[in-house]
Specification:
The protein has about 325 residues and is of the alpha+beta class. Among the domains are: about 60 residues, Trypsin Inhibitor V, Chain A (2-Layer Sandwich); about 60 residues, 2-Layer Sandwich (Trypsin Inhibitor V, Chain A); about 60 residues, Trypsin Inhibitor V, Chain A, CATH 3.30.10. Helix content is about 20%, strand content about 30%. It has a 3-stranded antiparallel beta sheet with strand order 1-2-3, with no helix packed on it. It has a 3-stranded mixed beta sheet with strand order 5-8-6, with helices on one face. The longest helix is centred in the first third of the chain and has 28 residues. It is rod-shaped, with a radius of gyration of 67 Å.
Length: about 325
C-alpha cells in the first residue's frame, strides 16, 4: 500500500508532457467580405481578422490577433483614369476647334456692279450674297451698298448683305407720242415702265403712237403702267348710196361695208320700204360709222276740206279829171 502511495506521489510530481506546437500558426477567425479571385480588380475593400499562435524560446505559447485590410486596386487607379479622360477631352476639343475654325479674308467691293456680277464675285471669293432691294437713284438692278464694307475682314463662307436699287421712288413718264410703236415701247420699258397698247383709228400713219396715259412729264411710281394709243390708220371708206334701194338691201350692203345702218320711217310717195334719203349721202366715213336711212312708209293720208263759198265784190273805179285853163 505504501508502494501505491509512492507511485501516485511520483505521478503528481512528474511534470505533464510538453505540448509541441508549430512555431507559428495562423487562423482566420472571420471575414467581412469574400476576397476577389487572384488577378481580378475588385472595387471593394476586403477586411478579415487573422489569429497567429507562436511559441516563444522559453516555451511560452502566445496567441496574437490582427486585422487585415486589402485595398481595392480600382480605387487606386481611379484618379489616373479621370486625369486621362480629362486630357483626352481637352485634346479632342482642341483638335475639333483647329479643324473647324474659319479663316478670315477681305470682302470684295461690289458697289456699282449689276446684281448678277456682284453675286458671281462674292461667290468666287468664298462668300454668300444676301440680297435686299430698295428705292435708289441708281438704275434698277445696280448695287448701291454692301455690309460688311469692301476690304473689311470677314469669315470665309459668311454672308454679305447687298443692297440693290429698284430705281427712284418716282419716275417721270417719257414722251411717246409721235414715235413708232416699237420705239416707244422700247424706251418706256428701258426706263422701267410697263407698256400696254390699244389700236385706234387716226389720220396718223398706221403704227404711230397718237396718245398716251399718263401723259409725258407726269411723276409716277417706278414700274407704273403706260397706255399707248397706236394708230391703225384712218379707216375711211367710201359710203355707198342706198337711195332707191329697199331697206333690207340697204342694211345688208352697209353692214358688209363696215357701217351701222339706222332706219327712220317717213311719209313718201315712193313705195313702202324704199330708201328715199340717207346721211351722209356720199363721200367717205370711217368703218363703224352710223349711216342714217330715211325709208318710205307710203304717202301721207289726205283730208277733204268742207265746201266754202267765196263772194267777190268788184268795185268800179271812178276817175275824175280836172282841167285847168290858164288865163
Amino acid at each position: 500500500m505504501d508502494d501505491d502511495r509512492t507511485r501516485r506521489g511520483r505521478r503528481r510530481e512528474e511534470p505533464d508532457s510538453p505540448v509541441i506546437l508549430p512555431a507559428e500558426e495562423t487562423r482566420v477567425q472571420g471575414l467581412s467580405s469574400v476576397p476577389p479571385p487572384p488577378g481580378a480588380d475588385a472595387d471593394v475593400n476586403v477586411v478579415h481578422q487573422e489569429e497567429r499562435t507562436r511559441v516563444l524560446a522559453d516555451g511560452t505559447v502566445v496567441q496574437e490577433g490582427y486585422r487585415v485590410e486589402q485595398q481595392s486596386r480600382m480605387r487606386e487607379r481611379l484618379p489616373w483614369i479621370l486625369i486621362a479622360l480629362l486630357l483626352a477631352l481637352l485634346v479632342g476639343g482642341f483638335a475639333v476647334w483647329y479643324l473647324t475654325r474659319s479663316s478670315t479674308k477681305p470682302v470684295p467691293a461690289v458697289v456699282g456692279l449689276r446684281i448678277d456680277e456682284a453675286v458671281t464675285r462674292l461667290q468666287s471669293d468664298g462668300f454668300k450674297a444676301e440680297i435686299a432691294r430698295q428705292s435708289n437713284a441708281k438704275p434698277p438692278g445696280v448695287v448701291f451698298g454692301q455690309n460688311p464694307a469692301a476690304d473689311a475682314d470677314a469669315d470665309s463662307g459668311s454672308s454679305v448683305r447687298v443692297l440693290v436699287s429698284n430705281g427712284p421712288s418716282s419716275s417721270t413718264v417719257l414722251n411717246a407720242v409721235g414715235l413708232t410703236q416699237s420705239d416707244a415701247r422700247s424706251q418706256l420699258v428701258k426706263a422701267g415702265f410697263t407698256v400696254t397698247t390699244v389700236q385706234v383709228f387716226s389720220d396718223q400713219a398706221a403704227g404711230t403712237v397718237v396718245a398716251q396715259d399718263p401723259a409725258a412729264g407726269e411723276k409716277v411710281a417706278p414700274g407704273a403702267k403706260v397706255r399707248l394709243n397706236v394708230s391703225k390708220g384712218s379707216g375711211q371708206v367710201d359710203v355707198p348710196s342706198e337711195v332707191g334701194s329697199t331697206v333690207d338691201d340697204a342694211e345688208s350692203d352697209l353692214v358688209a361695208q363696215g357701217f351701222k345702218p339706222a332706219v327712220t320711217r317717213v311719209a313718201s310717195d315712193e313705195p313702202v320700204d324704199t330708201v328715199v334719203a340717207q346721211s351722209p349721202s356720199g363721200g367717205q366715213a370711217r368703218k363703224g360709222a352710223t349711216i342714217r336711212l330715211s325709208v318710205s312708209e307710203g304717202p301721207a293720208t289726205s283730208t277733204t276740206p268742207a265746201e266754202t263759198t267765196t263772194t267777190t265784190t268788184t268795185v268800179p273805179a271812178t276817175t275824175a279829171s280836172t282841167t285847168t285853163t290858164s288865163p
